[in-house]
Structures are given as C-alpha cells and as structure tokens.
Amino acid sequence: MADILIVDDDKFLADMLAGQMVASNHTATCVHTLQDGLAEVRGGSFDVVLLDVQLPDGNGLDEVGYFKHARSEPEIIIITGQGEADGAEKAIVSGAWCYIEKPHVIRELSLHLTRALQYRQEKRKVFEVPVALKRKNIIGSSRAISECLDQVARAASSDVSVLVNGATGTGKELFAKAIHENSARADKNFVVVDCAALPESLIESTLFGHVKGAFTNADRDQDGLVKHADGGTLFLDEVGELPLAMQKTFLRLLQEHEYRPIGSSRQLYSNFRLVAATNRDLSQWVREGRFREDLLFRLQAFTIKLPSLLERREDIRELVLYYISRLCDRYGVENKGVAADFIEALSLYDWPGNVRELFQIIEQVFLNPFLGPTCFAVHLPDKFRVLQARAGVSVKKPPHSVAEAIPSWRQYKETCEKEYLVKLKEYSHGNISQSCRTAGLSRTRYYQLLQKHGLSVD
Ligand SMILES: Nc1ncnc2c1ncn2[C@@H]1O[C@H](COP(=O)(O)OP(=O)(O)OP(=O)(O)O)[C@@H](O)[C@H]1O
Q: What average pLDDT does the chain have?
C-alpha cells in the first residue's frame, strides 16, 4: 500500500485517478493547485506524486525538484496534456520518474506506478538491510575500503542499479562482482560488457543477439549478452564509452527490460540486474553533451566511489603480502618474507595505476634473478629506490646541516683568528712592526700566533 498525492486542476480526472488508486489498495489525496500540492508534500509522507503540468497558479514542471526533494522523497509521475511532451521530457531529466499523456493515463498509470513503487522499495532496502559480506579477493582494511564494502553489502541486498566509480585499477570490476556474488542472483551469470571494446557496428547484435538470416553470415540464431544475463547481473564496464545513439537504446532497455534480437519481430524479456562502472566524471560529460542525463540518472540510483591507492596507503602492506603469496602459489615456490624497507619504498610512490600497477611491480620483483627468500627494497625497480634515497636524505638533512652551520666556539674562534692573521699580513705587506702596531700585539705573541696557524713570517 502506498501514499499517493494527485495534483491536477481537472477535478473529474483527479477523482477518477484517486478511485483507481484506492481500488488498488493505495491511499490518495487530491489537490487542484500547485500551491496546495507543495503544501501537502511538505508535511506529508507520499510515495508518489501524480503531477499535472498546466495548473491555474503555475507550471508543475518548474517544481519537480521541489516535490522530489520533499521529506519523503517521492517519485514524480508527470501527467501531461497533448503537445506537452517536450517539456515533460525535460522533467525526466530533472528527476521525474516518467510522464504519461492524459489520454492514456487510465490505461498506463498502473504499470508505471507499480514500477515506481518497486524501484522505491528496492532503494529503501539498500539503505536498510546491511548483510554480512563475502569479500573474497577484496583486500584492505583501511577506513576508505571498509566504507565501500559496507556499500557493497547494502547494494547486494537489493536489485537497484549501481554505478561503481573510480580511477583505473582501483578494483571496479572486483567490486561489481562482489555485488553479484553477495546478491540473490549469485548462482546465475555475471555478464561483462566492455563498452570501450565493442565496435559500434556490433553493439546491438552482441547485446541483443540475432536470428538466422538477419544479415550475411548469420547462419544460425545467436543469443546476445542480455539474454545470458537473464536472472543474473549485467555489468557494463566503462559505460561512459557507450556511443550516444546506443545510450538511448540502453535507457529503453533499462526501463523496460525488453529487447528484440536483430531480424526478429518478437520482443523478449530479460530479468537482469544492472551494475555499471566508469572512471569518468559522467556529470561533467552530461554538461558537455557526451552522456545522456536521463541514463545517468537511472544508472546512479546507488553509487559506490572507490578510493585511489594513494587515499588508502595503509593497505599497501596487506595487498603486497596477499599478492606475493598468490605469486608463490602460482610459481610453486615457498612463501617469501617481506622486509620493512620494501614496504617503505612502495609507500613513497603515488600509484597513478592504483592496485593494478602495484601488482605489476610485484610481478617484476618476482622476475628479478637475485630475489631470495625475502623481498628487499633493493629488488624493486630503480625509481622506488631513488624515492627512498631522496626521502632518507631529506629526513637526515636538518641535524646534519645544523652541525655544519654551527661549529663549536673553539673551532669558530680558531678559524676567525687565522683569517684575521692572513688579512693582517696582506695589509702590512709582510712588515712585522706594522702588523704588531695595527693589531696591538707584542712581537713574541705575533710570532706565536703565526706559528700556531702554520703561517710564515714573510
Ligand atoms: N581491493 C583490492 N584487493 C585485491 N585486488 C584488487 C583490489 N583492487 C583492485 N585489485 C586488483 O587490481 C587489478 C585491477 O582491478 P580491476 O580490473 O577491478 O580495476 P578497474 O577499476 O576495473 O580498472 P579499469 O578501470 O582500468 O578497468 C585486478 O587484478 C584486481 O584483482
């Protein structure tokens, strides 16, 4: 049972919709002006708002954001008169669930409402039901990675679409797989679609399949990836790379879960759960017109932002130990020890390629012919040892330079005394009487000082 707010100045239609809602076991509240609608939603706990566009005191589309961000965060279904579809499309972009043209509202409302409520229920579950997580190969115990694992647990307990965002090599695919493996779909397929690697001309047949004779060389029916993902998870890797034309097709697939293999006249249904990943700032791409806002809105119902390795440096040791032990298993050798200077050198680097780069470096270490039972910094490529050497110099420098800059009082006095005598001799052109006079020294004392500093009389 859901709470529905109907904002429409057509009282007849509003009452009819309310009747339909009540017949489906929902509660319905009708208001006929925009101001009344805004007042109701402010204090109410509505799940869905049915919002008319042309209202006597304003345009419903201008207030979609306000309705959407009310306390109960309802889904908004726009009800438009004929010819208002353009504006309604804009409303979707600002976060409305869908729009229905008035002549079809009685017929279409119930399907859209069911989907909106299902989506809402899943979204709620995401925030309410954390589960114990099987994390398998996800290594790290930093705060940043633990927060992401909490999010994986929540996402896995629902069917909501998830967008995993993070720089290259941060583990986006690993996390996407963890969502699948912890979900109710774990025993079905996890199907990876690498959007960056798909040639544009093959995207549709790869995703949707084709029937025999659909094109030259199509000598038999071929299922697409969407069919393989039925009951499981469809993982769109590098979703930002999807061509714009394909983004539209995808949006429809996400909304309807229906597709048609190339050459077929039959619509098929696939019950997949969508997880997408990107290392792009898709909001920025939306602003630049390179990515559809409505698609982004669907994809990011739940977003997990993975930290870079730099943001979780404290995990480096754990990752290194894990990967070394994997390599030892792979090469059938006894597990190796790790010296402190090895981890220290790795921790000084910035890791632009994140965990993938770290693992590649460890693999290089394994190829080092001088590697014994323990990994030392000396086994690392030069760039790490240079970093370590520089860090060492900068740490030791202050006490060293202080010692240099401030000698003992005695040393300082001796140095000055010698410099003075050298200058005195120059000034007097070797004339001893003049030197003694200028300095106010006796001849005996002057000779003693010259001798002490190894200077000649002349
Ligand atoms: N937390 C982690 N624990 C263990 N291994 C990890 C972790 N994060 C990443 N990896 C490893 O790093 C490598 C790259 O991970 P993955 O392919 O999932 O990254 P990605 O973010 O999808 O990269 P890209 O954007 O370049 O495709 C893989 O070998 C993966 O197993």
A: 87
- Identify the CATH assignment for 143-305 out of 3.30.300.30, 3.40.50.300, 3.10.50.40, 3.10.100.10: 3.40.50.300
The C-alpha atoms of residue 365 and residue 356 are separated, in whole angstroms, by 15
Given a contact cutoff of 8 angstroms between Cβ atoms, the answer to whether 93 and 297 are in contact is: yes
Q: Indicate if ligand 1 lies below 6 Å from the C-beta of 192.
A: no
Global pTM reads 0.64
Longest C-alpha distance within the chain, in Å? 126
Instruction: Give the CATH fold of the 314-395 domain.
Output: Helicase, Ruva Protein; domain 3 (1.10.8)
Handedness of CA 62, 63, 65, 68 (dihedral sign): negative
Q: Round to whole Å and give the CA distance between 314 and 352.
A: 16
Q: Tell me the two tokens of residue 72.
A: 């109960």
| ipTM score of complex | 0.97
CA–centroid distance, 194 to ligand 1, in Å, is 15
109 in Cβ contact with 84 (< 8 Å): no
Q: How remote is the CA of residue 326 from the centroid of ligand 1, in Å?
A: 15
| Whether the CB of 171 sits within 6 Å of ligand 1 | yes
8 Å CB contact between 257 and 298: no
In this predicted structure, the answer to whether residue 278 has a pLDDT above a threshold of 50 is yes
At residue 393, the pLDDT reads 57
